[in-house]
Fold:
Amino acid sequence: MRRRRHVTFLLGVVISAALAGTAALSLVYTPSDPLAMAGGSRLQAPTRAHPFGTDHYGRDVLSRVMAGAPTSIAVGVIAVGIGALVGIVLGLASGWIGGWLDEGAMRLIDAVQGFPAILSALLFSAVFAPGIGISMVAIGVAFVPAFARLTRGAVLELRDREFVVAARALGARDRRLVLRHILPNTLAPLIVQATTSFPVSILSEAALAYLGLGTQPPHPSWGLMLKEAQNFLGMNPWFAVFPGAAIAMAVLGLNLLGDGLRDLLDPRTALG
Amino acid sequence: MFVATLFFVSALVFIVVRLLPGDPATLILGVESTPETLARLRHAMGLDRPLPLQYVDWLARAVRGDLGTSIQYDLPVGRLILSRLPVTLPLAVLAAAMMVAVALPLGIYAATHHRRAGDYTAMLTSQLGIAVPAFWSGLLLILLFSVRLGWFRSGGFDGWSAGVWTGVKSLLLPAIALGAFQAAVLVRATRSAVLEVLREDFVRTARAKGLREGRVVHRHALRNAMIPIVTVIGVQLGQLIAGAIVLESVFALPGLGRLALGAISARDLPVVQGVTLFVAASIVFINFAVDLAYAALDPRIRYE
Structure:
């Protein structure tokens, strides 16, 4: 059913574009100042002036949800970047060099798998101070095993193929073989992995901010807003609805986009 | 192999803790302490010895169950962890049970009704389920069942001594929130795994023999689809433990996560270190157990 695939992919593109657009827009324009407090209009339900209502300081929730978008995207990009960079280097090294290095790297990867983002964030926050940098690193670390395994698998598959052997016979050195011949051929699954990791990191960022381990107030973050909203569930339930809906919408759009990209770039794993 | 991985786990925790700016002795005694008392405490804590030696020492004690003493509670960290397990463990188990009970039948149904209405509905629901963070659905459940309907308390836990049902009732909403998210992931994995197997030649052979479809699915397809499914479940059990830490916060449950979070604000490093080591080691252990389960599921796989 190709048409349904196109429809969901298109939906993913539209939502993701809206997310990126909102994030860009929020940098230059929000309906109100996301940090401006107004004592007189606290915890209001949605009105014409405040379509998403106001929070416990009378701040406009719509503006704060908009301003939370760049935070999510920035953490996502940097966390995926960290995971991809470390994972790819580790995977290339262990797949290409092999031997005890491969064995050691794989056990290290198994160990890193024991540290979901929440757990590393707990440890990092206790040692340093909680903050947005902690969430980026903690989430990035959690992505390392997937990237490393994927890269290593691809290297092992390609290492003895004719075109690599031919390049070696022509006198290419390890560095050139890995960077010019192996790496470009592993890119498709790695790009798919990066796209599917991105929404995961948005979820993790929100959870860490909610726990108080990530983004700190007064910086607007969707997870942080939900933490604040929880104290006022009885007074203004809307406050807990919109930031969560923003997370769900962003993740849904990015997941649909990722699924579509996987079908395009990596047809072997596509399963209608 | 498993031991080597655990070795790395402990080394990672140790290294991160030793990155701490400033030294633990100053942290405990405060900045006004005299150099003499500092030196004495450092010596007592073994901080004046080479790092690798400190690590071996720490590891040897950790293996014997000695994870140090909490600064905040002045109790052994191991005992604190054990006292919080009766919350975190049942929460994770309850969520895991819900996840499997919902996701396996739904995923199998979607695969056997491939490209029909039921399949699309299941996929759409799971797509939405994956997008909704568990802590937000937890909040929405509180909003609906405690704030609006008043059927459940909005959080807290009285301990198992208050009765099994009271305990389960406190864990029910967080387990639903946690289980639903993971179930959405597992539905998709189950569906792909079963679909993949249903395309195999031996399934066609079984059908050609005239076996009824139910028997083909259960006897032939499912057994072979179980390996990828069990792999995903294994990964998810780790995520369930991590997720339980977040849900404990939403529902104010006194589990491992709240222990560690409280320890962060109290600068109680031994507790955070102990909890991290314990949880990471548990996850690694689960992954190892999953590897062993392969051999039970598939006689072709043997470990030396």
